[in-house]
Design a protein that fits this description.
The protein has 560 residues and is an alpha/beta fold. The chain is built from 18 helices and 21 strands. It has an eight-stranded parallel β-barrel with strand order 1-2-3-7-8-9-10-14, surrounded by four helices. The protein has a five-stranded antiparallel beta sheet with strand order 15-16-17-21-19. A three-stranded antiparallel beta sheet has the order 4-6-5, with no helix packed on it. Strand 5 and strand 6 form a beta hairpin. The model has no long low-confidence stretch (mean pLDDT 96). It binds alpha-D-glucopyranose.
């Protein structure tokens, strides 16, 4: 094996299973109604049993909490609601004991307006912190442009009475943007990374990356991304800890992907694949897989060390802004027909299970797909049991309710009688019906299905590491992908149609006698027909995972 290939084996994030959670809504150990690190500690064996390899924690630092913690007022601490730095290091230690990696959110595009840096910057013109933010003497002409939360956020510049000047905020007005052109700000940003690395984290989910690296200021009409900054972050991280990574939140067009990864993989290791995400939902809504196939091809180019983060839903709205208006309307019509289910003129705020009407066949299709798209799957807590949402809560809060553990009051999340964030109660998605304890006892539950799928996914590294081909098939509502890696091939079929169908295709394997497809999830294998093609009958929303060629992966592994 070439030396470079051997070194690639070290990239832990390539074949990881990421699970995102917020400490505050996962498990409350001290009964005050808010989840905490001690509670999370007690649930680590559950996560390990599920097959998760990496936990991504949403912001847990001190914060006024006006944007779910994405408004940080102290980068070097734990919000007392969740515990102490001591609890955090207990947590990372317990993760390490179990071979689990920890990633945390890195929110450095902006601070809270309550951060001491901003308080000093606004009150003292001579403070060194004044230039850590972005100011203007007059209201900039484009102050109404570029808001991220249309309908809720009015502008990107706000007048500050104390400073008697305007400050820039890409997001809400209580989130003043940091001036990342200032080298002291960038040095601080590295210090923040270094601090958490020292406490045992393996990487960062970097928030709002295109905005972090954009030029900012009253004269900036079209922000320009300063991609070299990414290399600076990456180099620092790797000097401190060789295997630490950055996973970028960057909803960008495919032609800039390589700017983020770097042509040689010298910038960020991972990015969320928003193209696949949006086109997956279009395919789920309409059965038309053509745009998804296009997105797969468009996001194919990437350096060998880079990896996509593949996800379905996250803590934000499902952003459909990159679809055409007609495509977006089709997804709205299928999954968010009520205006109240939509958000920010571009997205859907619901959780996945209610979007798919709780239909087990469609849920399995969606997660089977997520597990077999090129990249590393990223779950959101509660996905594994099909949790729902509470649309009475404002904006994105509806999909951030506490984890449903059991049929005990408040779903076993807390002993507190009236926690500030209430568990979903009653109805099809209430904790009485949807919870971990009940599903654990039922071998056919969604939870146990998910656990089996995750286990199999870990045993199919071709998906994470390999090259892929979108196969031609006889049907437009079926996606057929083949992954090739080190003389092994895996082939996955997904039927987005509501009808059963027979799909015909060539596996692409030309070795005589090797064109058998071994089903990885059941005993039903597929032999090639006389014309060299396969003909597989798929149920409505059916899916298959096959190994091509009949030889067991482990037998072929001798090369490794
Ligand atoms: C990111 C987060 C989102 C947050 C925003 C501002 O987009 O995912 O939740 O509101 O950044 O920090």
């Amino acid at each position: 094996m070439p030396l470079k290939d051997r070194m690639l084996n070290d990239l832990w994030y390539k074949n990881a299973i990421v699970y995102c959670l917020s400490v505050g809504t996962f498990m409350d150990a001290n009964g005050d109604g808010v989840g905490d690190f001690q509670g999370l500690l007690r649930r680590l064996d559950y996560l390990q049993g599920l097959g998760v390899t990496t936990i991504w924690l949403m912001p847990f630092q001190p914060s006024p909490g006006r944007d779910n913690g994405y408004d940080i007022s102290d980068y070097y601490n734990v919000d007392p609601k969740y515990g102490t730095l001591g609890d955090f290091s207990e947590f990372t230690h317990a993760c390490r004991e179990r071979g689990l990696r920890v990633m945390i959110d890195l929110v450095v595009n902006h601070t809270s307006d309550q951060h001491p840096w901003f308080r000093e910057a606004r009150s003292d013109p001579d403070s060194q912190y004044r230039d850590w933010y972005v100011w203007s003497d007059k209201q900039p002409p484009n102050a109404k442009d570029g808001v991220v939360f249309p309908g809720v956020q009015k502008s990107t510049w706000t007048f500050d009475k104390q400073a008697k000047r305007w400050y820039f905020h890409r997001f809400y007005e209580f989130q003043p943007d940091l001036n990342t052109a200032n080298p002291y700000v960038r040095a601080e940003l590295l210090k923040i990374m270094g601090f958490w690395i020292q406490l045992g984290v393996s990487g960062f989910r970097m928030d709002a990356v295109p905005f972090v690296i954009a030029t900012k200021g009253p004269k900036v009409r079209e922000p320009v991304e300063q991609y070299d900054m990414l290399r600076e972050f990456r180099e620092f991280l790797q000097w401190r800890q060789g295997d630490a990574i950055i996973l970028a939140e960057a909803n960008v067009l495919p032609d800039t992907d390589l700017e983020y990864f770097g042509d040689e993989g010298e910038r960020l290791q991972m990015m969320f694949n928003f193209q696949l995400n949006q086109n997956t939902f279009y395919a789920l809504a309409t059965g038309d897989t053509a745009p998804l196939k296009k997105a797969l091809t468009a996001t194919r180019p990437r350096p060998a060390t880079a990896q996509w983060g593949v996800f379905l839903r996250n803590h934000d709205e499902l952003d459909l802004g990159r679809l055409t208006p007609e495509q977006r309307e089709a997804v709205f019509a299928a999954f968010a027909p009520e205006p109240d289910m939509q958000l920010y003129e571009r997205g859907i705020r619901r959780r996945l299970a209610p979007m798919l009407a709780g239909d087990r066949r469609r849920l399995e299709l969606a997660y089977s797909l997520m597990l077999t798209l090129p990249g590393t799957p990223v779950f959101r807590y509660g996905d594994e049991i099909g949790m729902g949402d509470d649309l009475r809560l404002p904006e994105r809060e509806c999909a951030r309710t506490p984890m449903q553990w059991s049929t005990e009051p408040e779903g076993g999340f807390t002993k507190h009688a009236k926690p500030p964030c209430r568990v979903i109660t009653g109805g099809a998605y209430g904790f009485e019906r949807v919870n971990v304890a009940s599903q654990r006892r039922d071998p056919n539950s969604f939870l146990n299905w998910m656990e089996r799928m995750i286990r199999m996914r870990r045993e199919v590294p071709e998906i994470s590491w390999g090259d892929f081909d979108v196969l031609r098939t006889s049907r437009s509502d079926v996606l057929a992908l083949r992954f090739d890696w080190r003389n092994n091939s895996v082939l996955c079929l997904h039927n987005f149609g509501a009808e059963a169908c027979t799909v015909k295709f060539r596996s692409g394997c030309n070795e005589p006698g090797q064109n058998r497809l071994i089903n990885l999830l059941s005993d039903e294998h597929s032999e090639e027909q006389d014309d060299g093609r396969h003909a597989v009958v798929l149920e409505p929303y059916g899916y298959r995972w096959y190994r091509v060629g009949g030889l067991d992966y482990l037998l072929r592994r001798s090369e490794i």
